[in-house]
Amino acid sequence: MPFNQRTGSFNQWLGVETESHIQRVHENMKRTAVLFSLGLFALILVVLLITRSSPDVRKLSQPEFTMLFQSNLLAKVRVYYPPKPGQADGVPVMLHEVRGTFYQTDAHGQILKAQGIPTEFPFIASVQFTDELESKLTRSTNFSFVSPNPLVQQASKWLHLSRQ
Q1: pTM for the full predicted model
Q2: pLDDT > 90? residue 64
């Protein structure tokens, strides 16, 4: 009988200790997963803020964008697809978000340069493309279509709404 009692108490002791160890490991794994997730989320937010928040971005109207394009003053152009519904002169249209850079000019129309390099300024515009404008843009070497990741779009909308 004493042998069984020892074995029983030893098993109880082993079971309690093992269970306690498993609980600690499980809680450490939870804590690690939460910290890793929060760190990843913070990194994504920082990257979004850095890439999306430029205080000196100039908002261009449709005529300004067209004038810069026709004057060959657009350095880089990224057109985001799909277009979004909007209005132009009170008429419902599909507007493309266009981001990029343009060359700044002086009063004589000469491109400003800093240390011999043309000065580029960022812009954003909502543009309705005519067939002619779209075909000219697609033939340009400084042009690219961008189809954003839906998850990034949702995060961007959430971030934009949280700023307001």
Answers
A1: 0.57
A2: yes
